[in-house]
Automatic annotation (TrEMBL):
It comes from the Bacteria. The lineage of its organism: Bacteria, Bacillati, Bacillota, Negativicutes, Selenomonadales. It comes from Pectinatus brassicae. One of its GO terms (biological process) is thiamine biosynthetic process. Pfam families: Phos_pyr_kin. The keyword Ribonucleoprotein does not apply. Gene3D superfamilies: 3.40.1190.20. This is Hydroxymethylpyrimidine/phosphomethylpyrimidine kinase. GO terms for cellular component: cytosol.
Length: 274
């Protein structure tokens, strides 16, 4: 059985972060492990409190995992501050980790900050270059590219700018996926690697329950990379998983509710994943 590690923050309400990632990994019938970077007190209505974990303790968790069970892919989500980012970057290099999916989580959908502002540059310079794929949403792409994309053409332009900033020196396969969940007319995602652009067209599902879509997409990409799919196919399969998880409209809580991983997991028994 392939193993997937998530390095992320805990969401006690189970919709995003570590909890969404472990549900996704289990629905893919893979073995999930977790390194927690921060505790959050949050629910479907927003984030009430954040408590970052001491960077040395994040390092101790990483040592415990990598000295025993080597993951086939790693998803990195909320990293909270620069000390944690630098610890993760050091450990990723020490253990020569491959198949890293980095979701540059900066804020919750409801607006609360999940990354210190001054840590963004460290994230971009020290951790992103170690990834195989980075998956900014529109707002994160705006911070990284310097302008807010509003169309698929502009998402492509933003992805190319981010690629040049982060991956210019890389020879192996790596890519930037700009996610379009916050567009108004569609939910198209745009993937750019060194040479090509792939557009994943998707109609916008009319559903307020989108808490954890970005976490779920990135951990599903990690599951696909662990199984040996290439970046382009991994994104295609992962987007299908997220769409399935949204479509059944599990309507929990009074705000933006979580996804339905049971429904999405059923799809994975089909031929596409086999
Ligand atoms: N209403 C929607 N209909 C269809 N697909 C969606 C919708 N909302 C988000 N998605 C898809 O979910 C994935 C995550 O995209 P999104 O842009 O919401 O990321 P995010 O903002 O990082 O997520 P999160 O809300 O967890 O922070 C993408 O593949 C996106 O296209
Ligand atoms: C621990 C953690 N990680 C990531 C997110 C982003 O997800 P969303 O934007 O759906 O709230 C979150 N809310 N909490």
């Amino acid at each position: 059985m392939k193993k997937v590690l998530t390095i992320a923050g805990s969401d006690c309400s189970g919709g995003a972060g570590i909890q969404a990632d472990l549900k996704t990994i289990t629905a893919h019938r893979l073995y999930g492990m977790s390194v927690i970077t921060a505790l959050t007190a949050q629910n479907t209505t927003g984030v009430q409190a954040v408590q970052a974990i001491d960077a040395d303790f994040v390092g101790a968790q990483l040592d415990a995992v990598f000295s025993d069970i080597i993951p086939d892919a790693v998803k990195i989500g909320m990293v909270a501050n620069k000390e944690i980012i630098q610890m993760i970057a050091r450990k990723m290099q020490q253990y020569k980790v491959r198949n890293i999916v980095l979701d540059p989580v900066m804020a919750a959908t409801a607006g609360s900050k999940l990354l210190q502002k001054e840590a963004t540059v460290i994230l971009q310079n020290e951790l992103m270059p170690l990834a195989s794929i980075i998956t900014p949403n529109i707002g994160e792409a705006a911070v990284l590219a310097g302008f807010t994309p509003t169309t698929t053409d502009e998402m492509e332009k933003a992805a190319k700018i981010i690629y040049e900033k982060v991956f210019a020196k890389r020879q192996d396969d790596c890519a930037v996926l700009v996610k379009g969940g916050h567009l108004t007319d569609s939910a198209d995602d745009v993937l750019c690697d060194k040479n090509l652009t792939y557009i994943y067209n998707s109609r916008k599902i009319d559903n307020k329950n989108t808490h954890g879509t970005g976490c779920t997409l990135s951990s599903a990409i990690a599951c696909n990379l662990a199984e040996g799919f290439n970046l382009q196919q991994s994104v295609k399969n992962a987007k299908k998983y997220v769409t399935m998880a949204m479509q059944t409209n599990l309507d929990l809580g009074s705000g933006a509710g979580p996804l339905n991983h049971m429904a999405a997991g059923g799809w994975l028994t089909s031929d596409i994943w086999q």
